[in-house]
# Entry
Amino acid sequence: MIADLLPHRMRLPTNAEEFMTHVVAEPCFNCKYTDCVVVCPVECFYEGQSMLYIHPEECIDCEACVPECPVEAIFHEDNLPKEWTEFTKLNSDMSEQTPNITEQKAPMADDNSDGCAQK
# Structure
């Protein structure tokens, strides 16, 4: 089978629940830094009104985006803090409803309300 010839990280999942690899979580909300977008080799980021999302069927688990996020909002699903588990489904759902983003943009203005704090 051709999937047996692919490196582990590039193997194709057998069902939809196995697709999610990385998740954008709470720290991205009201920040939307897009440093992660420009390093993604498969362009799997999608832009919502208040945050970014990773498409679970497109992410190849390369981890290039993780160190680029200035607010540490990107986690492998296995390392996602328990209080943010709902972001796995949110990323999956919203990446189907929002436009793909492939270029860096200015982050959202921080008005010191619920906002983000750059590390």
The longest helix spans residues 86-94. The first strand starts at residue 22 and ends at 24. The domain at 15-94 is CATH 3.30.70.20 (Alpha-Beta Plaits).
